[in-house]
Amino acid sequence: MLKLSTKIKSILAVVVLMSILSCGINNNKKPSNDNPFESQVDSILGLMTLEEKIGQLNLPVSGDITTGQAQSSDVAKKIEEGKVGGLFNIKSVVKIKEVQKIAVEKSRLGIPLIFGMDVIHGYETTFPIPLGLSASWDMDMIKKTAQMAAQEATADGINWTFSPMVDISRDPRWGRVSEGSGEDSYLGARIAEAMVNGYQQGDLTKTHTMMSCVKHFALYGAPEAGRDYNTVDMSRIRMYNEYLYPYKAAVDAGVGSVMASFNEIDGVPATGNKWLLTDLLRDDWGFNGFVVTDYTGIHEMIAHGMGDKYDVASLALKAGVDMDMAGDSPDVNAAFVKVLKEDLDKGKVGINEIDTAVKRILTAKYQLGLFEDPYKYCDENRSKTEIFTTENKGFARKVASESMVLLKNEDNILPLKKSGTIALVGPLANSAVNMAGTWSVATKQEKSNPLLEGLKTVVGDKANILYAKGSNVDYDEEFEKRVTMFGKDIPRDDRTDKQLLGEALAIAKKSDVIVAAIGETAELSGESSSVTSLQIPQAQKDLLNALFATGKPVVLVLFTGRPLAIVDENENVPAILNVWFPGSEAGLAISDVLFGDVNPSGKLTATFPMNVGQVPIFYNHKNTGRPLGNKEGKFQKFKSNYLDVRNEPLYPFGYGLSYTTFDYSNLTLDKSSINLDGEISASIDVTNSGDYDGKEVVQLYIRDVVGSVTRPVKELKGFEKIMICLLYTSPSPRDRG
Length: 737
Known about the structure:
By secondary structure, the protein is α/β, with parallel strands linked by helices. Helix 11 (274-284) runs parallel beside helix 13 (309-319) and helix 12 (297-304) packs across helix 13.
């Protein structure tokens, strides 16, 4: 038995504070002017031409730079002319060193470049997609994943990551829900802190740390219709109470940079929104790092209707943007490097505004130690010894196994025995390139281990593994092409659907149990991957139904980057293990859980709906004047419910099963009332009452039943993941079979 005690700040104080923020009153926190590099920055600024200043604000994609050809590349020529401040998505320490040498040794002032990359959930050693990682509810482990990603990326020359993405999302139609931490702002804030601290570790002078960039500021996760890049429109009270907190947590953790989002806020795109990027971010929150646009964000304001190329560039600079990502691409007209000089001549911007942005970029380079040693991240020995190591892969395997969520386990079909014959079926069963999921740009996809390989490794010669693809990803070949992009192809089988299914049923007949590896492909979620259906692709649904009809026990290993509506699967299949996209050690990690070497402990951080018509659906919703009350599951006229489906989701936020069971008892509070700045201590006894050692996520929720503004039906205010071992000796899951 373990006793868990959690300190809670005054509930009333929290509610009052949030209500004040909701009304738009700032906390009078001003940005710090204590810049230890101010004199050095000013000295450099005084030597710069206007073109060189504007060049520091330019962040192009690496373009055609390849090893041994940096001297002749178009981007390299711009670097030599002082027209580039940094590069992104250039990979390998050899290439980066070659390019940095041009900036330092051939440009007039020798200002070093900053090198950024989308290191989202690991570098070459890849962890679960962020939504999956959040399901671990383990802040120390999440922090360590960021530390390890920083170690690998910096060993390869990269010193700036566009992570974490902290956008709250309640709409799984939006593909980028896979990149965030789910629907709850409190949990999202804790993860934001962990990630920033993991990347930066409080000391950017160290060679194994890198600058973090929190994104997408702000509200990007709430687009209308769940369609990427679409309009976001919400009240200030919803902004402050439900969406802004994780960004603020990242700022408070000392994040070095912020990325503006694509969407508009109060009718003004974030890239040109002065209230957002200056009044809120800098004046209210005290942020003193630099702001970068998202890819071509300035140019896109023309399509939003904010004016011509001169108008939008000046709007962005005046709003508080410091660096322009991909603005100098050939098909982009509105960019700092292309129009700011004319904007200055026309009086649309002032030289002081340009200087302010330049100072922020130069300060970041000083913070990273690049002026002291431009090649500090260019140690080729590190790149050979610190990337994709055995130790790192072992940790990735552990993280993946602890992020999986057991959704159903009827009659304790799991864990499986390492004996007999196991049929592995499904288009995702043997696809190494899909295991890392979306936004895994540095991953060597082919090095990931798929489920087939993992099963064979874990069972060895104790069991017989039979494999059949069973179906293509979907019947629609064009749809399948759209969801297997960026080198994540699952070669389409040229056999007929009937032949594919026949092969699967043949091995199922010979087997004791069927493991069905189905669901989404890696690129069915992610950027520009919005959907209107939350169902598993029909070809795979039909395959699963046919396998279930054999009468053999079926375990569904569900790959997904978003909450899915799997009502049929939940009704029919006896066991469902949601594995997200587990990363480079996917096959081994899934097998660890299937056979009980790891007891599943993940909990959902995003609600799984009954169907897409319930969307948006989330646990901490407001009440109505006509709530259904205790009548959930039963229709009641003139109450807030649906005619055709109940209000409840299929699987709620915080849900997840284990191979063991936990009992909660003796919930107590140390006092019955508190003042505004007081504390109350809540304690509860948690007992492992099952057969195996296991981890449990203890979650604390509150509800303020009376307030000056309406409050959600419940809110997460504390959690802790704990390991509870049995008090007596019993077989562990791994001993079965």
